[in-house]
User: Which sequence fits this backbone?
């Protein structure tokens, strides 16, 4: 008896998807919930799991094809899998004395070849964290099928016109991914529809760096996650957004839509391009919750596991070009948001304090904003408040 594998229901506002990678071949024995194929939308990659165990008898849609919800992708013949096939095994007995959270236990069940006793645990009291297991999965993963570009790469033939001074100069034509196409559309939309302006400032990062150095070990021990700079910036931005609600607003037709919540998007890089997962209700998040959420988002972005819900919404965005060495940039708005903060590299620079020249770790920051609703005075004061909060971190705690 055969069962059809269908394209699942797509997220709201997503009309179709592109089939990018088959993880199984015709004739393969598969387990229930094995990932059969990846479908790419303009925001996320969706996994299509096997509805039951059996043998993959027929693949009806090849890579690079555009598909819609309910379309038949493949057929599975229902039967028992081979005895030596990897089963969704219980967690190895060697780990029976290791306390495991439900999320960790689920990951280990999904990857039965991992021995939790062999995974370095960074959690409190030697506990395994979700990040520990995901790192182990990444390190042990080897593709089972031919690693391929998600779409066919067409190499243009070298012709006489492609020869210069006797040297061949080959070219390749590669179609943009749906995500890259969507990014291009949104960037052009932001440039054409908003009156975008950028204001700059500099922040002496020494107070935050000193605080981080002083408490990073205790923070890691207490919360099982590292204390980074981003949590300080998220908290500083949240307090500034409270004081300047117009920066947290957006334009909706002829109206200004004020948001009574603070959902901050954090731009992270992924193999597919730049994505912006959203931290919800940052006013209610602790430093450790912010840091752990960012780590989870970054890990999921690299593995292509971000969900559509992770990437939708947001009232403000932070992007950190400093991780790649950027000294200064003018970030582009993330529509329909009205402002975005750009962080940059921290560099030791000479500055004047109390009439004397001293060396301090300085970061240049940039705020791009929609001048249609945000005046220059508000944008400058907003950025100054972020500067003041980071140069005197007690302000964040005291909310002043």
Assistant:
């Amino acid at each position: 008896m055969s069962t059809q594998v269908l394209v699942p229901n797509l997220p709201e506002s997503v009309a179709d998807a592109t089939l990018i990678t088959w993880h199984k071949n015709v004739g393969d024995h598969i387990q229930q919930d094995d990932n059969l194929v990846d479908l790419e939308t303009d925001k996320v990659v969706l996994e299509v799991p096997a509805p039951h165990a059996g043998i993959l008898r027929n693949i009806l849609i090849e890579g690079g094809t555009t598909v819609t919800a309910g379309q038949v992708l493949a057929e599975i013949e229902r039967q028992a899998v081979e005895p030596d096939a990897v089963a969704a095994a219980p967690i190895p007995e060697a780990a029976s004395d290791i306390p495991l959270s439900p999320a960790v236990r689920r990951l280990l069940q999904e990857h039965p070849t991992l021995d939790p006793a062999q995974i370095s645990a960074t959690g409190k009291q030697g506990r395994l964290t979700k990040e520990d297991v995901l790192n182990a999965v990444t390190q042990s993963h080897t593709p089972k099928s031919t690693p391929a570009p998600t779409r066919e790469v067409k190499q243009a033939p070298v012709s006489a016109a492609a020869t210069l001074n006797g040297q061949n100069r080959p070219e390749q034509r590669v179609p943009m991914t749906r995500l890259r196409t969507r990014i291009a559309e949104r960037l052009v939309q932001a440039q054409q529809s908003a009156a975008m302006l950028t204001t700059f400032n500099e922040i002496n990062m020494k107070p935050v760096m000193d605080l981080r150095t002083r408490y990073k070990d205790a923070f890691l021990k207490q919360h099982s996650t590292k204390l980074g700079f981003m949590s300080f910036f998220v908290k500083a931005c949240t307090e500034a957004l409270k004081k300047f609600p117009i920066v947290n607003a957006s334009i909706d037709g002829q109206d200004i839509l004020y948001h009574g919540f603070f959902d901050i998007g954090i731009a992270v890089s992924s193999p597919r391009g730049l994505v912006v997962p959203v931290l919800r209700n940052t006013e209610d998040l602790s430093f450790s919750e912010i840091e752990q959420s960012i780590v989870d988002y970054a890990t999921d972005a690299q593995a292509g596991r971000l969900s559509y819900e992770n990437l939708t919404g947001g009232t403000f965005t932070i992007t950190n070009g400093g991780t790649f060495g950027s000294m200064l940039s003018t970030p582009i708005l993330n529509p329909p948001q009205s402002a975005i903060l750009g962080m940059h590299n921290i560099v030791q620079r000479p500055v004047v304090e109390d009439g004397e020249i001293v060396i301090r770790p300085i970061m240049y920051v940039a705020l791009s904003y929609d001048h249609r609703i945000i005046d220059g005075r508000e944008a400058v004061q907003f950025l100054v408040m972020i500067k003041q909060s980071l140069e005197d971190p007690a302000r964040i705690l005291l909310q002043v």
